[in-house]
Model the fold of this input.
Amino acid sequence: MSYLSDWKYTHYLFNYNEGFVKRGLVGEALGSLSGYVSYEMVNFFSYIVLGILSVLVLLFFSAPYIHREKRLGALFLMVFAVSSPATLQHFAFDVGRFDLIIYSAFIFLLFLIHRLSVKSPVAIFFIVSLGLVLTVLVHEAAFFMIMPLTLVFWNYIDSSKKSLILQLFSFLLLFVVTFLVSTRGGYSALGFEEHFDSLKAIYGDRVVGSSLNVIHDISIEENLERTINAGVSFSRLVHHAAFVFFMLPFFYMIYKLYTSVRSEMNFKTVLVLVSSLSPLALYPLGHDHFRWWSLAITNIIFSMFLIIINDGVVRNKVFSFFEENVKLVGFVVFVGFTSGPLGITGSFDVVGYAARVVRYFI
Done:
């Protein structure tokens, strides 16, 4: 059974046929391959992207174990990262969303920065800037999802004066592009109703109006109002409570891990960790609250790996922590598997199941 929803499928129908539109790059690319962007085609493409991202994530998470001492702590760290409800489980649950394309590009950029930034800072400037611009064209929220951690990691690897200037230019370029895409990327060739009807005439009932509406002019105020209304609803509060309950062991372990390595961390390593929280800046702008949490937690785990791959002292302390806290790590992994994937507007499926049981007896 496919998890590709009609809401996500509708996004693939955005293209540049009537001029530039935000989030239209993927649909434009698929449309150039086939004039008719069918659900089956998008479904196939979505699972190909999921497969690519899964391979990249597994390679990334296994790197400390394979390329270092093959210590037991490195193996436990890999299992911990892979089993998190916010990493592969979340991406598999949310197959078809543009986030998977963005994070595939993200891992590729991190690899290139790690390999080339010191040797070829100018080349990395063009590669990183182009890569991040393309992700913003895929979805403008990439500016908050991956841009801060990408640029901060680049600075972590190479903070020379020349590279610092290039990093600043890259940030300014991304800021301008994101601003223009966000403010000038609305669809204007047709009104919403006409646009909706024209797409339905071609693609049928799979076209979802609320998905199409994102490229028609919606003010920040409207987004804020909708997000606030959703955020204070009883259902959303219950999901936030469930999120805290199931993720508390994870955050407790992260806190203990941080305290164990804090003495070895400097300003640059702390900045890498802090920059990973950038997806939470989208909290008031989009009501996909648990999507933002998933991406932030994914970034936290990525930032941990980026640091231990490049800092031998921190790496040894992290490995030792995982070796000395096997029961805690095992419990976090167990909770991660049993809770299932972290969702989008809801936290965990178990909340919905519990609600249905309660309704049945009431």
Notes: Residues 98 and 190 are 24 Å apart (CA to CA). The mean pLDDT is 92. The radius of gyration is 21 Å. The longest helix spans residues 39-67.
